[in-house]
């Protein structure tokens, strides 16, 4: 079932790409809000495929009635997705009352588990309340900068991440993690 869903989405995404030839990344097929590139990059077939899958996942998650906003992040939002290597990362903003209630949050996570089971490319899903999103942005200015510049709203209201100056310590910390995560892999693959 999981792979048949992906094949159907690939065909639908490709068909949609042919119908929307020349559309830019900032426009989005359904008028979604994109904060990434101002519409300067033409979308690849893979990006449109992944966005289509992301929209279906967002619709299923929004159907739980617990979300305020759902946005796709990183390469899918910026128009740089590569099939089949890219995955779909979401940032889900839940209502404050859901975040405060263990039972409501557990019910939402049951829906999320079902959606992930049906969506093989859906990998990282970050779930935040509005308050949690503001706190995270204050704690890590690098994270806030990346999230603000690389998201595309799929459902609900556009994400609003406060623009704060990038702190040197946050940038240095991310560089340190970069070398720990990616540099050894690059050496193993003999990739520059």
Description:
This protein is of the alpha+beta class and 192 residues long. The chain has nine helices and four strands, in the order H-H-E-H-E-H-H-E-H-H-E-H-H. The protein has a four-stranded mixed sheet with strand order 3-2-1-4. The longest helix has 18 residues, at 2-19. It is globular and about 45 Å long. The N and C termini lie far apart (38 Å).
Q: State the share of residues found in helices, binned by percent.
A: 40-55%
Helix and strand element order = HHEHEHHEHHEHH
How many beta-strand segments?
Answer: 4
Count helical runs.
9
- Low-pLDDT segments, ≥5 res: 11-40
- Rg, alpha carbons: 17 Å
Largest sheet: 4 strands, mixed
Distance between the termini: 38 Å
Mean pLDDT: 77
Global shape: globular
Summarize the structure.
By secondary structure, this protein is of the alpha+beta class. It has helices at 2-19, 45-62, 74-78, 96-99, 102-118, 130-139, 141-149, 168-181, 183-188, and strands spanning 67-73, 88-94, 122-129, 151-156. Helix 1 packs across helix 2 (45-62) and helix 6 packs across helix 7 (141-149).
Task: Quickly list its features.
single chain; 192 residues; alpha+beta; 4 strands; 53% helix
């Amino acid at each position: 079932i999981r792979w048949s869903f992906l094949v159907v989405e690939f065909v639908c995404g490709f068909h949609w790409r042919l119908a929307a030839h020349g559309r830019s990344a900032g426009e989005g097929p359904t008028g979604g809000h994109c904060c990434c590139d101002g519409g300067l990059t033409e979308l690849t077939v893979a990006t449109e495929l992944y966005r289509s899958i992301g929209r279906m996942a967002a619709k299923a998650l929004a159907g739980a009635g617990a979300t305020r906003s759902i946005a796709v992040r990183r390469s899918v939002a910026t128009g740089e997705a590569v099939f089949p290597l890219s995955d779909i990362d979401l940032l889900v903003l839940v209502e404050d009352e859901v975040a405060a209630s263990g039972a409501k949050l557990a019910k939402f996570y049951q829906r999320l588990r079902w959606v992930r089971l049906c969506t093989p490319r859906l990998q990282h899903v970050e779930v935040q309340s509005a308050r949690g999103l503001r706190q995270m942005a204050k704690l890590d200015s690098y994270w806030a900068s990346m999230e603000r510049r690389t998201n595309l709203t799929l459902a609900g209201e556009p994400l609003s991440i406060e623009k704060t100056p990038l702190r040197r310590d946050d940038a240095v910390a991310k560089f340190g993690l970069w070398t720990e995560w990616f540099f050894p892999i690059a050496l193993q693959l003999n990739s520059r």
